[in-house]
């Protein structure tokens, strides 16, 4: 009978314990559907949530960049969307563009999005109608970045905040005209690839 190594078994048990604890949180009073982790990461969809501190920093940056009454688009960046909703701001609005239909629990603010069809968006979504677009393409490939860039350029009035691997610096500049920031984003689980933020405006991330 095949058996797991003691190390693998321990890791698996830790994973199940974490899962049970999260489920327990969901059923306890005071559960916030917008808190990061309320919807589990799906690694098969290349989902990796930001740490709470990173999501907060990016959300606050987006609010400042959007300005009073601004509109913010989160493209494949659900943990920033969740943090924006936690801020409960009355002077900005936000939409989440996601392939994962679990995020449809967020109602009208959810827009189904497949980067393979970058301009397949609702007809009532006017071009250049968002003050800032925050995007985190799911894959570190030029094809994925190029297609996501089409979406970003359609949505934004001008400002772009891109989060992707450091290896994508040249392609990010080529397709979106963005430059790398000093701010180093972190994830709730450590990623093998170095991750960075890129902007095309004077941001608070430097």
Helix percent band: 25-40%
CATH class of the largest domain: Alpha Beta
Q: What class would the helix/strand composition place it in?
A: alpha/beta
Order of helices and strands: HHEHEEEHEHEE
How are the SSEs placed, and which strands pair?
Layout: H1 6-27, H2 52-66, E1 70-75, H3 78-87, E2 92-98, E3 110-112, E4 130-135, H4 142-155, E5 156-165, H5 169-176, E6 179-180, E7 195-199
Parallel strand pairs: 1-2, 1-4, 2-3, 4-5
Antiparallel strand pairs: 5-7, 6-7
Helix pairs in contact: 2-3, 4-5
Catalytic activity: L-lysyl-[protein] + 3 S-adenosyl-L-methionine = N(6),N(6),N(6)-trimethyl-L-lysyl-[protein] + 3 S-adenosyl-L-homocysteine + 3 H(+)
Pfam family, one: N6-adenineMlase
InterPro entries: DNA_methylase_N6_adenine_CS, Efm5/EEF1AKMT1, Mlase_EEF1AKMT1/ZCCHC4, SAM-dependent_MTases_sf
Describe this protein's structure:
- The chain is an alpha/beta fold and 206 residues long.
- The protein folds into 2 domains: 6-38; 43-199, 3-Layer(aba) Sandwich (Rossmann fold), CATH 3.40.50.
- Helix content is 33%, strand content 19%.
- The chain is built from 5 helices and 7 strands; from the N terminus they run H-H-E-H-E-E-E-H-E-H-E-E.
- It has helices at residues 6-27, 52-66, 78-87, 142-155, 169-176; strands at residues 70-75, 92-98, 110-112, 130-135, 156-165, 179-180, 195-199.
- Strands 3-2-1-4-5-7-6 form a 7-stranded mixed β-sheet, sandwiched between helices.
- Helix 3 links the parallel strand 1 (70-75) and strand 2 (92-98).
- Helix 2 (52-66) packs across helix 3 and helix 4 (142-155) runs parallel beside helix 5 (169-176).
- The N and C termini lie far apart (56 Å).
């Amino acid at each position: 009978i095949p058996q797991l190594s003691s190390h693998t078994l321990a890791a698996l048990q830790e994973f199940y314990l974490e899962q049970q604890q999260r489920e327990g949180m969901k059923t306890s009073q005071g559960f916030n559907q917008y808190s990061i982790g309320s919807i589990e990461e799906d690694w098969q969809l290349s989902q990796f949530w930001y740490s709470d501190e990173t999501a907060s920093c990016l959300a606050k940056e987006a609010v400042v960049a959007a300005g009073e009454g601004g509109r913010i688009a989160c493209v494949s960046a659900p943990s920033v969307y969740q943090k924006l909703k936690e801020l409960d701001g009355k002077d900005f609005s936000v939409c989440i563009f996601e392939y994962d239909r679990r995020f449809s629990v967020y109602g009208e603010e959810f827009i189904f999005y497949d980067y393979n069809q970058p301009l397949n968006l609702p007809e009532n979504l006017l071009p250049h109608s968002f003050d800032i677009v925050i995007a985190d393409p799911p894959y570190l490939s030029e094809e994925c970045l190029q297609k996501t860039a089409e979406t970003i350029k359609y949505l934004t009035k001008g400002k772009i905040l891109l989060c992707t691997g450091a290896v994508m610096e040249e392609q990010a500049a080529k397709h979106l005209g963005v430059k790398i920031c000093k701010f180093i984003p972190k994830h709730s689980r450590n990623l093998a690839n170095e991750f960075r933020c890129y902007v095309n405006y004077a941001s608070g991330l430097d």
